[in-house]
Structure formats: structure tokens, C-alpha cells
Amino acid sequence: MDSKKRYELLFNNINQYNSGDTGITRIAYTNEEQTCTHAFMRMCMAEHLDIRMDSCGNVIARRQGKVDGLPPVVMGSHLDTVYQGGKYDGVVGVTAALEVIRRLNEKEILTDHPIEIISFACEESARFGVSTIGSKAMAGQFDKNRYRHIKDKDGITMEKAFALCALDYNSVDQASRVNEQFKAFFELHIEQGPVLINNKKKIGIVTGIAAPVRLHVKIKGTASHSGTTPMNMRKDALLGASEISLALEKAAKDEEQFGTVATIGVLNVHNSAMNVVPGDVELKIDIRSTSLPSRERVLVRLHETIGHIKENRMLDIESVEISSEKPVLLSEEINDVLINICEEKKFSSQIMQSGAGHDAMNMAKLCPTGLIFIPSFDGLSHHPNEYTPIDDIMIGIDLLEEVILHYSKSNE
């Protein structure tokens, strides 16, 4: 069986693990995600890899090298999805890594350095509002006491979700690998945007990853009858939320030159009815940029807006920061190698930034890191219609194989 057909079978096999009827729903630390993870572990065992799952739920599959004591070359991504997401986000990186191993086994190539595949736990923030949990834990960046009691939409805490997967939340620190050495880390991922498609390029070589600050805003006014409450006597929480939304949009647009973006992805009106002035609204806000000063300016304007609305509309507004990440610059040396391989193989490529966060940004704290993008049709991501042609994925796998072979050679 050729590599393309073999990879398609692998890709489709992974995506059969799905709890929804629309798109792919494989939420972190759920039965579907755990079943998928264990299926992937069996696939890795079939390729004679040494498998373990750490205390955070990360899967580490290791192919031994022929020189003892050398640090591993690592590649990977994640298998969890958002609600009603697509087939490609995260999955491409994990399955591509396994296809690289299959190619090496097929060619009977034994590398000097060991090679690892990592399937990171809970990359998506869909469940708890916190992203890249697995790679944070591996990089020693996970504050377990801060996140212990965060709940999902069903009221399940993160600690409880771990327990339901037979993971001990109190032992999550043991997932840290800060005292280990790594040669390099690589993540292949769909772009999740329109740049490569619009520029007719097959490969994006990422120089930096924008990082989000996320907030949970609760707005409390007074629920009252829509027919008997005069307009000048209302404490309408939804109108306060609307003002915040528009002000946030303007603040982000004013920072457009820095690529800064801001989104209100969740707006809940509690106990809503057509004939009731909304009294209780909550927002979840995501502000991200590769420029910390730019992101901070948007955040300052958000808080200023909240202050004005509290006073002018007589609303109680509570803003709580859920998480705050720092933008990450990736290895220039690795990017030079990737550029050279693309030129040699005649893969059309371009340098670019990532507006989305990835596990690569945490692994960059442990070792030189490269992030490779392949095109997303119409720029769609986190959507059932997310799509990347198989031929584009194969180009990404070809590049990943070459860079893994480059870095898995001993320099001695």
C-alpha cells in the first residue's frame, strides 16, 4: 500500500471517534477522546514504539535511536476537538507524525537520535476555557491549583474530569519534562486561515505564535417587565454587553497593524424571555496578538469601557481573567532548515505568523521548535466544513519526514 492510501486509512480511522452528528466532537477528557487516544496508542504499538501516558493524559510514543544517551527529536499535536469541529485541526499533526514513523520503518532507517510522537491532552479550550493543558504541564507551566475547580458547561470540574479518565489531578506536576533534554520539536498543522490558499502556497513556515488573554465577564442589571419599565429606568445587562462588544471591536481594529484580534465567543442571557428586560448576562472574551503592548492596549480600553458602562447604565460588572499567555517566537535556525528543504523539494512556501495558539508555543520553552502550516480550504477551521486536500497533507508529511531525518542525525 502506498503512503497516501495508508495515510487516508489512518486519518479516517481516527475520525470515526466522534460524539456528534454534525462535524467532529471529541472533547478533551471525554469517553470519545479517551477511546480515540487509546486507539492511537495501539496504532503506535503496531509500529513497535514504546508507549506511555503521563499524569496529564499526554501520550508519548518513542522510537529508539541507535546512539545511547542522545536527546529525542519530537513531533506531534492533539486529538481533541471543539464542539462540532472539523476533521483536520490537530489530527493532521498526530497522524502525520505516525506516518513519518511508518515510512522510516518501511525503509528500515534507524536514526541516531530517538524520535518521539506526542499526542497532547486538551489542546482546545472548548471544555474549560483553558487551552494547551497537556503541553503546559509538560513544559512545567500548568498551575493546577488555579484550574482545579474550573467547571465545564455541565458543572464538571477539571479535577473531576481527570478522575473520570483514571488520572490523578494532584499528580499532574509529574508530567513536567523541564529537566529533560530535547533536540527539537515539530508540529504540522492546518493553517486555520486563508493566507496560504490566497497566496497559492503549499507550506507556511511560522516565525511566531500569537497568544491570548481570556476573560469571563458577568454583567448584572435588573430583570424587569418589558412593557411596564420605562426606558430611562432600565438596568439592561444585554445592552451593557452590546456596548462592550462594539467597543472591543473598535479597540482591536485600532491595533490592526499589529495583527491584534478580539472576539466575544460566548454571550449568554440567563433566564431570557421576549417580554423581560435582560438582567443577567455573561461574556467570554478572547484577545490575542504577537505584540504584548498591542494586546495590553486593547485590554486597557476594555476595562475603561466596562468602567464607563457600570457608571452610565448602573450595572454590576465583574471581569475575571481566565488565562493569559505570552506570544512565542520560534527557532530561526529550524526555520532556515525548513526553508532550505522546501527549496530543494520545490515546495512553494512562505514565512508567516500564527494567530492561533498551538502546543508548539509551550514546547518552545523546552527546546528549539518548528511549526509547519498546510493550507485550509476557504480558511475554515473549528467548523464541520474544515478541509485540507490529501495531496496538500502529503506535502506536509514529506517536509516533516525530511526535517525529522535532518535533526535525528548525530552531530558527533
UniProtKB/TrEMBL annotation:
<feature type="domain" description="Peptidase M20 dimerisation">
    <location>
        <begin position="214"/>
        <end position="310"/>
    </location>
</feature>
<dbReference type="InterPro" id="IPR036264">
    <property type="entry name" value="Bact_exopeptidase_dim_dom"/>
</dbReference>
<dbReference type="InterPro" id="IPR002933">
    <property type="entry name" value="Peptidase_M20"/>
</dbReference>
<dbReference type="Pfam" id="PF07687">
    <property type="entry name" value="M20_dimer"/>
</dbReference>
<keyword id="KW-0378">Hydrolase</keyword>
<protein>
    <submittedName>
        <fullName>M20 family metallo-hydrolase</fullName>
    </submittedName>
</protein>
<dbReference type="InterPro" id="IPR010158">
    <property type="entry name" value="Amidase_Cbmase"/>
</dbReference>
<dbReference type="Pfam" id="PF01546">
    <property type="entry name" value="Peptidase_M20"/>
</dbReference>
<dbReference type="InterPro" id="IPR011650">
    <property type="entry name" value="Peptidase_M20_dimer"/>
</dbReference>
<comment type="similarity">
    <text>Belongs to the peptidase M20 family.</text>
</comment>
